[in-house]
Structures are given as structure tokens and as C-alpha cells.
Write a structure and sequence with these properties.
The complex is a heterodimer of chains A (294) and B (366).
Chain A lengths: L1 H31 L6 H17 L4 H24 L7 H23 L16 E3 L2 E3 L1 H23 L1 H11 L1 H6 L4 H27 L8 H12 L4 H21 L8 H16 L14
Antiparallel strand pairs in A: 1-2
Helix pairs in contact in A: 1-5, 1-6, 1-8, 1-9, 1-10, 2-3, 2-4, 2-8, 2-9, 3-8, 5-6, 5-8, 6-8, 9-10, 9-11, 10-11
Chain B lengths: L14 H5 L5 H21 L2 H26 L7 H18 L4 H6 L2 H21 L8 H22 L10 E2 L6 E2 L2 E2 L3 H22 L3 H11 L1 H6 L4 H23 L5 E2 L6 H14 L4 H25 L4 H5 L1 H19 L3 H15 L5
Antiparallel strand pairs in B: 1-4, 2-3
The chains are: A mainly alpha (294), B mainly alpha (366).
Chain lengths: 294, 366
């Protein structure tokens, strides 16, 4: 029982990071309809930038801020250079552009920072675990969970109460109608990419604090996909629930299924789950169901 | 993108002429010249290195044809074709290494050809299995399930379980002499080249003919609008699964062919990159045409080789460049895909079609 509780809590905490990156993904999809497969590489870039600043002696929060600023700039550049021209193209073209982007980013990251694992030195979070009764959690996990929740609240408020957020929702709902009442779609798309890049940067930085940073952190970008499918592609709370659920599922299957299927069950379980889930509920828990007409 | 226009003054008089592959004398001459180049001049003049490059091109064409059939003709997006190539390769290898063949079949050299066929069937069945969700979902969701195929089959089943069969460890090596078709032992690049040519030509003919039959027309109807296809009385699920089967079959044969070139196979030969690469190839070449698969493969493989040749001389001054070649390759591939989709969404096949028409209609291009 104790093992179960431990796994559950760790899963929820790791799921917080997945949720954070999934948020960025959902944001882009919600606003511009782009299905982004480059999320993992965006995470990597953000993480490496903050690591570089941190190892130059900049305080952690300041380094994170720098990485957010650079993520903001890169997001706008990416949208302007690559995705601006693809509005209205078939889904495969848009996806493959993001795949192309992911290769491009990955190549650049490997060229600039090489493939060796790098760690935040000195460690940002203390290695000393925090105890809640019999359950032990690492400090990093707790912080990432807190960050995810805080960002969730910020996002929800942003969408509900600010002018920009409303413009984004209008654009997501009906681009034509939004344009006709004076919402600048180009501005909305650029803002969505900038925010997604920033969210990915935070997620990547937190992940980099757990096990050090190397190219395989980009694998996270793929784990985001089961999360958003579970929650529904265009639902912000869905991304959070999906991310946490995938984190829990991954940890539980790592502990309990490993003795029946030795090997990398942990890495594969989210995808198996996703494939089965798609068969029964393809629009996820809170996604919009689109009714098709000829 | 329809058929090319005929030159001024050429008219069809029979239905047979209308459906002929090579419609004018010029095209016949051109095809003969092409076959001469492929079968005689390239093996005669190209060195061992360039032959191996051509083998790579052929492998890419074979793989891309399956993807082209699914994406270009049936409209079923897939990002996991590499998994079915892997299934084919492993089926074939395991059959050759582990199956108790009767003595006479080995002597007659039937083991490899039979295993190619079974590998095709096997890969086709797996492809259908992972194509089953296509009955309910499409577009992005289908991409996710095919992606799951890649991770489940290659990264899990093959890496963790299939590789353990026979206790050989991660890589299966094929002893020399096991790759033989009848008395013909495939043991060097030139033989692989001829084997590749035959397979590529055969599968091009099969697919080109398949897409102009009832089946092919049903696929195209599903691609263009699956709801209206269903309204017209096409059994959508059946034809979608058939497309998955045929694409998987070609993928299996591709994998099975490729083991004749690799001395040893391991799961690293079939990464997710391979699946993405194949989709990138058909996007660059042009979606919905067989020319597209061929042009895309030629372009991508040759561009990468040229990149390599350009980098090697610079390696003396910048030794880091050689180490980082893989990364440069990745970045270039990514940029090439982005560039093609943004600036030439119809791909190279469309340009080729325009050029042909320009010359056919010259000087009266109205």
C-alpha cells in the first residue's frame, strides 16, 4: 500500500511537468489549429538556455527569466518564419512542418550544446527529500507541481479575463468571425507560439533539474501527445488532467507491470494506453467533438 | 495532377491506346534509354560507393511507395511505416536463421524468396492491426496510432523480445551465402543493386496498375472525401484496411530486401526517424504520384551524400564538422521539409509534370 501511495504521488508530481508542456501544446492548437510535434525540442531549447545562463553564475530565477525571454523571441520568430504561411493548409503539411522544425531544432541543439548530459551545478533544489508522513517526495517534483498549478491558474485567468485571452478564444472558435470584428489573427498566433515556447522552457528547466539535461529530454515532447489526447486537444484543464494521469500511469506501470513484461514498459505504456483510448473516445475527455458534413 | 497532355497532332483512336503506359514513340524511346542507363550504364560506370548510394535510393523508394499509397492515394496519414519495414526485416531474418527448412529448399535457394513473401504478409497483417483505428479516427489521431505502432513494435516488442530469440544478443548477423535466390547468391553491392532494381520496377508497376483499377479509384475517393465515398457505396473500412495491408506488404518486402544489404540487423536500423524520413521524402517528391516517391528519394539521398562530400574536404580545417555531421544532416533534413512544404507544396513531381507539358505543348502552349 505504501508503495502504491509513493508511486501515485511521484506520478502526480512528474505529471505536473507533463501537464505544463501539454499546456503549451494545447495553447498552440487552440489558437492556430497547428498540431505541434516539435514540443520536445522547444522544451530542450528552453532548458539548455536557462542551464547556460545558470552555469555562467546567474541566479536561478534570473536564468529562468532569460530563458523565458529567449523563448518568447524564438516563438515569435518560428511562427513568423515557418507557420505563418501555412494557415489553411492540410493537416499533414502543418504536422510535417513541425516535424521538420523538430529536426532542425534538435540538430541545432546538438550542434551548440553537444550530446553529453549536463547538470545544473550547483544543484538548484536541495537533494534532501521532503517527508509527508510515510511518503517521500523530492523537492524538484514538488516545485514542478506547484509551478504547473500556478501556471494553470494563470492560463485560465488569462483566457477568461484578459483582452488577449478573449481574442485567442475568439480566434480558436472561428477565425473568420474573429477577423471581422477586428481581432488580429497574426498577433494571436504569434502570441500563442511565444507563450508555448515559454511554458516549454519552464517544463524543460524543471525536468533538467531532476536527472540532468541531455537530448533524450526531448522525448517528453512525445509523451505530451498521450496527455493531450486523453484530455482533449483543445481543453486547458484537460491538458492538466491528462498530463497528471499520464504521469501516474507511467509510474504505476513501471512498478506493477514490469515483472510481467520486463523491459521498457514505462516508456511504452502511455502510447499503448493512447492507442486503446483513441479507439473508444477519440475526442478525449473534454475536447470538442466535431461533426462532419460533406 | 492528371495525365500529361499529348503533343500537338497526336490523337488516340482506340481505348487500348488511351490506357497504354507509353503513349508515344518518344516516350517508348525514353523508357528504353532509362532502362539502358539503369541496367547497363550505372553498374558499368558507377563505382562501389555510388552503387551503394543507389541501393540506399532504391530502399527509400520502396519504403516511400508504401507511404505514398497510404498517404498519397488513400489519404490515411501514417508516421509509423518504419515499424512495418522492421517487421518485414525481422520476419525474414528469423525465418532464414531459425526455421527448419527442408534440405532441398535450401539447396534450391528457395528459403530467402519464400521468406520475403511471408515477411510481406506478416508486415501487412501488423499494418492492418494498427490501421484498425482508422475505422473510427482520421487525420491527426491516425498519426498518433501509427506512431504508437512504431514505439510498440520497434522499441518494445522487437528490441525487448524478438531480439532475444536464439540468444544472439541485440544484432542478428546473417552468415554469407544465406541470401540466395535460386542459384543466385546476393553477396555484393552490384547484386543488391540488380535485386533492388527488379523489386522497385515490380512494385512501381503493381502500384501504378492498382491505383487505376476499382480498388485504386475507391482509395482516391476515400482520400478526397471519405463521407461522400461512403455515400457512393464504397465500403470505406474495407478499402482503408486494404490500403493498410498493401502498404504494409510493400513495407515488409522493403525490410526483407534490405537485409540482403545489411550484414547484420538490429532495432537501431529502424528508428522513428526512418518513418518520418519516408513521409518527408514523399512530401518533397510530391504527394499522390509514384514519380513523387522516386524523385523525393533521389533528391533526399543524393542531397545527403553531396552534403557529406562537401563536408569531408573541410574536415581537415574544422575537424569538429565531421563529428557533427549527423546533426547537420538532421537540421538540413528538417529545413528541407519545411522549405518544400512552404514554397513548393505540390512537390517535385508537379514541377516535372509542368516541364513535360511545356515541352509537349511547345510551341503552342494554350
Amino acid at each position: 500500500m505504501e508503495l502504491f501511495a509513493m508511486t501515485l504521488v511521484t506520478g502526480i508530481m512528474v505529471g505536473g511537468i507533463y501537464a505544463l508542456v501539454a499546456l503549451g501544446w494545447v495553447l498552440i492548437y487552440k489558437c492556430s489549429g497547428v498540431l505541434n510535434l516539435a514540443m520536445g525540442e522547444m522544451t530542450l531549447i528552453g532548458a539548455y538556455v536557462s542551464l547556460t545562463f545558470y552555469s555562467m553564475g546567474v541566479p536561478f530565477l534570473l536564468a529562468l527569466l532569460f530563458s523565458l525571454i529567449i523563448g518568447f523571441i524564438l516563438g515569435i520568430l518560428t511562427e513568423r518564419i515557418f507557420l505563418d504561411k501555412l494557415i489553411g493548409e492540410p493537416v499533414l503539411s502543418v504536422i510535417m512542418v513541425t516535424v521538420g522544425l523538430s529536426f532542425f531544432f534538435k540538430g541545432c541543439v546538438e550542434l551548440i550544446w553537444s550530446t553529453d548530459t549536463k547538470v545544473f551545478n550547483p544543484p538548484v533544489f536541495s537533494i534532501e527529500p521532503i517527508k509527508f508522513g510515510s511518503i517521500i517526495i523530492g523537492e524538484v517534483y514538488l516545485w514542478s507541481f506547484v509551478a504547473a498549478i500556478v501556471l494553470l491558474v494563470i492560463f485560465v485567468c488569462f483566457f477568461k479575463y484578459t483582452r488577449w485571452g478573449l481574442a485567442m478564444q475568439a480566434c480558436a472558435d472561428d477565425e473568420m468571425a474573429a477577423l471581422s470584428i477586428g481581432v488580429s489573427a497574426r498577433f494571436v498566433y504569434a502570441a500563442a507560439w511565444a507563450i508555448a515556447f515559454m511554458a516549454a522552457g519552464v517544463g524543460g528547466t524543471l525536468l533538467g533539474n531532476i536527472n540532468g539535461l541531455n537530448i533524450s529530454v526531448g522525448y517528453l515532447g512525445l509523451l505530451v501527445l498521450p496527455a493531450v489526447v486523453l484530455g482533449g486537444l483543445n481543453s486547458v484543464p484537460g491538458a492538466i488532467v491528462g498530463g497528471i494521469a499520464i504521469g501516474v500511469l507511467q509510474n504505476l506501470s513501471g512498478v506493477y507491470l514490469d515483472r510481467y513484461f520486463p523491459g521498457a514498459v514505462k516508456d511504452i505504456a502511455p502510447f499503448v494506453f493512447m492507442a486503446i483510448f483513441l479507439l473508444f473516445k477519440p475526442y478525449g475527455l473534454w475536447g470538442w467533438e466535431r461533426i462532419e458534413r460533406v | 495532377m492528371s495525365t500529361t497532355f499529348l503533343p500537338c497532332g497526336d490523337y488516340h483512336q482506340t481505348y487500348a491506346e488511351d490506357h497504354a503506359w507509353f503513349q508515344t514513340k518518344f516516350i517508348k524511346g525514353k523508357m528504353i534509354a532509362l532502362f539502358l542507363v539503369l541496367f547497363v550504364f550505372i553498374p558499368m560506370f558507377a563505382g562501389d560507393y555510388w552503387i551503394s548510394v543507389f541501393n540506399m535510393v532504391g530502399y527509400t523508394i520502396l519504403g516511400a511507395l508504401g507511404v505514398q499509397l497510404l498517404i498519397g492515394y488513400c489519404g490515411q496519414l501514417t508516421l509509423g511505416h518504419g515499424a512495418f519495414i522492421a517487421v518485414g526485416a525481422y520476419t525474414s531474418t528469423l525465418l532464414i536463421l531459425e526455421f527448419p527448412w527442408p534440405e532441398f529448399m535450401i539447396n534450391l535457394g528457395l528459403a530467402y524468396p519464400v521468406s520475403i513473401f511471408i515477411a510481406g504478409i506478416m508486415a501487412g497483417l501488423f499494418s492492418v492491426l494498427f490501421g484498425l483505428p482508422s475505422a473510427r479516427v482520421k487525420g491527426f489521431y491516425l498519426i498518433l496510432t501509427t506512431m504508437a505502432a512504431q514505439f510498440i513494435l520497434v522499441d518494445f516488442v522487437i528490441t525487448q523480445y524478438v531480439s532475444q530469440i536464439g540468444g544472439r544478443g541485440q544484432a542478428f548477423s546473417l552468415p554469407p551465402g544465406t541470401m540466395k535466390i535460386g542459384p543466385w547468391v546476393i553477396d555484393n553491392n552490384y547484386k543488391v543493386y540488380f535485386f533492388m532494381l527488379i523489386l522497385v520496377i515490380l512494385s512501381c508497376i503493381i502500384i501504378a496498375n492498382l491505383v487505376r483499377t476499382r480498388v485504386g479509384r475507391a482509395w482516391v475517393a476515400i482520400r478526397d472525401n471519405d463521407i461522400s465515398a461512403e455515400v457512393m457505396g464504397i465500403n470505406v473500412i474495407k478499402y482503408k484496411l486494404l490500403a493498410f495491408f498493401v502498404a504494409g506488404f510493400i513495407g515488409g518486402i522493403t525490410g526483407s530486401f534490405w537485409i540482403s544489404n545489411l550484414a547484420a540487423i538490429s532495432p537501431e536500423h529502424f528508428p522513428w526517424f526512418l518513418s518520418l524520413w519516408l513521409v518527408g521524402v514523399i512530401l518533397i517528391g510530391g504527394v499522390g504520384s509514384i514519380h513523387g516517391a522516386i524523385f523525393g528519394s533521389l533528391f533526399m539521398v543524393v542531397i545527403m551524400e553531396v552534403l557529406q562530400l562537401a563536408i569531408i574536404p573541410m574536415a581537415d580545417t574544422y575537424p569538429k564538422l565531421l563529428m557533427d555531421f549527423l546533426f547537420i544532416k538532421e537540421a538540413t533534413f528538417g529545413l528541407a521539409i519545411c522549405g518544400f512544404i512552404i514554397f513548393e507544396p505540390n512537390g517535385m513531381a508537379y514541377r516535372w509534370w509542368q516541364i513535360k507539358n511545356y515541352f509537349n505543348l511547345w510551341p503552342f502552349s494554350y
